[in-house]
Design goal:
The protein is mostly beta strands and 396 residues long. It has a single domain, classed as Methylamine Dehydrogenase, Chain H. It has helices spanning 5-8, 21-24, 29-35, 48-56, 107-111, and strands spanning 2-4, 79-83, 93-97, 103-104, 121-127, 130-135, 140-145, 151-156, 166-169, 172-177, 182-187, 198-199, 204-209, 213-218, 233-238, 244-249, 257-260, 265-270, 281-287, 292-299, 305-307, 314-318, 321-325, 332-336, 346-351, 358-362, 371-375, 381-386, 391-395.
């Protein structure tokens, strides 16, 4: 099936995320080296200077230090925060907030002496007592025991492929490789490939899986590759053989995607183009039975999504804060916050499956340690604590 979102509800062409985060603190960086990826967006021009400084003055970049007092023993039941660090600086970290309120900036290094997380981790999913982490620049997938933070296994997924976003469905792991324009299916218990590379179009970002289908957000990196075939589409693959089942067009600079299988829905965020800064992005809800858009919400530069599996409500991080969305209801602003100008840039969003609280990764200025802000769904701040550089994903 081929669906054009514009036929459902017309909207303006939009641009890339309000922050420059996905360019200079994630796996998009290597594309910048070769193609000058979208440096001059309407809200990102001011950040070019600090990127230049990173190149010229690497000694100013903080690096992790070994924790004092020997090997860390984790207290189970806390929250992990995966922190990207800075590209090619090998200063990523795995922070841990235990149930007693103690925060370890890098529990990974404290538990696994002599090892580092790797260069630019970008996502994490949980399978039983195991966390699976994508480490983009290192081209690795890594299994970590979530009870102890000990490494179980690491594997390189290819000669050039760099894992970006992850989606888990049973014992199958789906990996988008933004730099290689492909997705890969992996055995989540062994980290061995079960398919060859599957081409999906320019710059795949978010991935989400249902029982029978895989949804891949093919962004095209905004203006950079917008003219290429399949750019700004949601590609739909059959999980049985990874063949193309359809696509949804008109999702300009599409970024994140999340599945709600119990309600036959998939949600996706799309952003405006830098060349058209006055337009808005938005969020669409898609009925997976017919692969058609059933609701569109307009928001400025939406990025990350997280789901309340019980209520079906979706929370979306965007330029002006966090919105709560539902197919049959009006949107509700949960928290107001403007990210931009290289300070207090909210970079990640996650809903705790037990408490229901919203965890926000604040990248601050990108070159200093970040923090985690914990809110209720009514918008009340419960706690905040320091973590490593550029917090990008969470696990419980």
């Amino acid at each position: 099936m081929k669906t054009n979102v514009g036929a459902f509800e017309p909207f303006n062409v939009g641009g890339r995320s309000a922050s420059i985060v996905q360019m200079f603190t994630s796996s998009n960086v290597q594309m910048f080296k070769s193609s000058n990826v979208q440096m001059f967006t309407s809200s990102n021009v001011g950040r070019v200077l600090f990127v230049v400084l990173l190149v010229l003055v690497p000694s100013c970049v903080p690096t992790p230090s070994e924790p004092d007092g020997g090997v860390i023993t984790t207290v189970p039941g806390g929250v992990y925060t995966l922190c990207e660090g800075l590209w090619q600086q090998n200063n990523a970290s795995l922070s841990y907030r235990d149930p007693n309120g103690t925060t370890h900036r890098d529990v990974f290094r404290g538990v696994n002496k002599g090892e580092t997380v790797g260069d630019t981790p970008t996502d994490v999913v949980v399978l039983g007592d195991t966390m699976i982490v994508s480490v983009s620049t290192s081209r690795e997938l890594m299994m970590v025991d979530r009870r102890t933070a000990r490494v179980i296994r690491r594997t390189t997924i290819g000669a050039t492929e760099q894992p970006y976003r992850l989606a888990l469905a049973g014992d199958r792991l789906y990996v988008s490789c933004l730099n290689a324009d492909v997705v890969i299916e992996i055995n989540a218990r062994t980290l061995e490939r079960t398919t060859q590379n599957v081409s999906v179009g320019p710059a795949p970002e978010g991935v989400a899986a249902t029982a029978t289908k895989l949804y891949v957000a093919v962004s095209g990196l905004g203006d950079l590759r917008r003219s290429e075939p399949l750019s700004s589409t949601l590609q739909i693959l059959r999980r049985s053989d990874m063949s193309v089942a359809g696509q949804i067009e008109g999702l300009w600079n599409v970024a994140d995607v999340i599945a709600d299988p119990s309600r036959n829905l998939v949600w996706a965020t799309y952003r405006h183009f830098a060349s058209e800064p006055d337009s808005l992005g938005g969020v669409v809800a898609i009925d997976t039975r017919a692969d058609t858009v059933v609701r569109t919400f307009r928001l400025a530069s939406p990025t990350r999504l997280t789901l309340d599996e019980v209520s079906g409500e979706v929370f979306v991080l965007h330029r002006d804060g966090i919105e709560m969305l539902a197919v049959g209801a009006a949107p509700r602003r949960v928290i107001g916050h403007t990210s931009g100008n290289g300070a207090d840039v909210w970079y990640a969003l996650w809903r705790h499956p037990i408490s229901g609280h919203l965890y926000v990764g604040n990248a601050r200025t990108f070159v200093t340690d970040g923090e985690v802000l914990v809110y209720t769904v009514q918008g009340a701040l419960r706690e905040r604590y320091a973590v490593g550089l550029n917090p990008t994903a969470f696990a419980y």
